[in-house]
Amino acid sequence: MLTLGGESLRFESILDDCAFVTRLSDNKRLPMPLRSSAGFLVKGRSSRALPEGFRVYIFVEDESGAEEPTEGIPTVLLPKDYSYLGDGDIIRIAPHRRGVRVLYRRNARTNGILLTERCNHYCLMCSQPPKDVNDSWIVNQVLEMIPLIDQDAPELVLTGGEPTLLEDDFLRILNACKSWLPRTAIHILSNGRRFADAAFTQRYADVQHPDLMVGIPLYSDLSTNHDYVVQANDAFDETIRGILNLKRLGQRVEIRVVIHKQTYQRLPQLAEFIARNLLFVDHVALMGLEITGFTRFNLSDLWIDPVEYKDELWQAVSHLSSHKMNVSVYNHQLCVLDPRAWEFAKKSISDWKNEYFAECDGCVVRDHCGGFFSSAHLRYSDHIRAIVA
Fold first, then answer.
1. CA-CA 20 to 30 A from 12: which of 130, 135, 240, 349?
2. Is 5-102 assigned to CATH 1.20.120?
3. CATH of domain 111-378
């Protein structure tokens, strides 16, 4: 698991306490006008002279140690946990906390960008527990970051909290993505309820982003079950209306189903509901449980060995596929799935928290397997095994 942030780091000669976002560069020939907002990256010990004019100098320790900073220049010294940092990555530096946060990694398959920690759901298995705080400062950080992102980035995930609670600022961020990153796919993770408002949905559609999809959770064909999982009254009805409004305007929609003890039994019925009523959605993702956030506190009510629901999962996959729907299985290991579901299984866990365990050694399908969340050491299937030829 990669370290994406920390505090009490060593700072030298930082001139003020204001947090700022900077793109890293290891190019000592970077044109001078670009240096004033960039961070120069140095790994290990280096005999080369530091180029002048960069906003900050980032020294990362390696096996040889770390370069000692030159007196009088703004410097951050990072431990070797950050040795993965490279040219084009973006970090936020908070001198008042002596803290660093990695916001974007140029070589990552997908980058997630948090827009807010506020949410109008309180899901039993929320991996990012909501906070009732004024975090509007995040919007400015995101708008500052977007122009720094590599224009060939394949995909960005905009997440929360609930991004649509930002209202106008949410649409500003989408427009910024369209302007600065026209070739980058944008995947929004939303509970979908705000799209029950037809006027808001029209404004969303009017952004006319060329590659935009919203992923919306639906946990049951029964409204009471869905509302219980998300801990919000009338959430099911607003979610369905939101999906219908989006598709009425030709917007791309993904349905996301997290499978656990409260949702697995009606997976086949949910698949039938989707095929009957929401056949026009663009993708259905059937997802394994991540043991983090609220899941840890509700584990006894949520955890079920994936082997115990593999029949229900296959029935759901088979039903959706038979109706020519685009369906995928996320966050599962191949050895706990019905082999007929293997062709639908995707490697979906973000690389910074994707791991494999000792039981996987020697498995002939490991390169095609989704692996584990790093939090899975708390609980994982009793049936993990290496598949051998």
1. 135
2. no
3. 3.20.20.70
